[in-house]
Amino acid sequence: PLKAKDKVVGAILVDNIFNKKAITKSDVRMLAMFASHMGLAIENSRLFEETVYLSNTDWLTKLWNYGKFQQTLSFEIEKAEREEGRVSLVMTDVDNFKNYNDTYGHLAGDEALRLTASIIKNSVRNIDLVVRYGGEEFAVILPLTETIAARDIAERIRTGVSGRFFPDDSMRTAVRLTVSLGIASFPVHAGNMIELLGNADKALYLAKVS
Q: Sheet of 137-143: strands edge to edge?
C-alpha cells in the first residue's frame, strides 16, 4: 500500500486482455523499450517548451522580451481586425534612469528595474502582456481595451512606481523614481501595428518632455 510519504513517479499496468496468456520476459523487454522511448519523448518535449520560454523571456526582470512582444502585438491586432475589437498599447520609460544608475551603481539599477517590472505586472490584468521593451523601457499590450480603460491602467502603473522607494524601502539612500507613459489604441489612433507603435512612442516622448 502507498503511504503519504511515498512519491509515485509513474506506473504502467500490464495485462493480456485478449488471450489471457501470461506476460513473458520478451513482452516485458519490449514494454521496457517502449517506455524508455516514451519517457525520452516526454523529456524532449519538456526541454523544448523550456527552451522556447527562455528564448522569449528577459533574464533580468523575467518579463517577456521584445520578440514575444512583436509576436503578440501582431496577433492581437489581427484578431481585433477580424472581430472589430480594440487593442491598446502602453509604452513606459523610467525617468532619469541613467543618473540613478550612475549615482547608485548598476546593481541598484538592476534591482530598480526588477521592482518596476513587478509593479507594472501587478498593475495590469491577467490577459495583458507586460514586456521589457529594452533598457529601462517597458511595454504593455492591452487586448480588448479602449483608450479610457488604458489610461486607468497607465495611471495605476504611474502611481505604483512613484509611491515606491528604490532600490529598497529599508535603504537609507533610497529615492523615488518616476515613469513616463504613452498610450495609443487600435483602431482609434492607428490602422496597423507600425502606426500603433509609432503613435505610442510619440505619446511617450511628449510625456517625457512635458
A: 129-134, 137-143, 87-94, 179-186
Positions marked catalytic: 136
Taking the CA atoms of residue 63, residue 64, residue 69 and residue 72 in that order, the dihedral angle to the nearest 10 degrees is -120
Question: Are the C-beta atoms of residues 164 and 41 closer than 8 Å to each other?
Answer: no
Structure pTM? 0.75
Q: How many CB atoms lie within 10 A of CB 94?
A: 22
What whole-number distance in Å separates Cα of residue 143 and Cα of residue 204?
Answer: 20
Q: How does pLDDT run across 14-70, given as a tens digit for each residue?
A: 566 656 666 677 766 777 777 676 666 666 566 555 555 556 799 999 999 999 999
| Closest among 173, 40, 47, 155 to 103, alpha carbons compared | 173
Q: Which residues, in sequence order, are bridge partners of residue 208? A: none
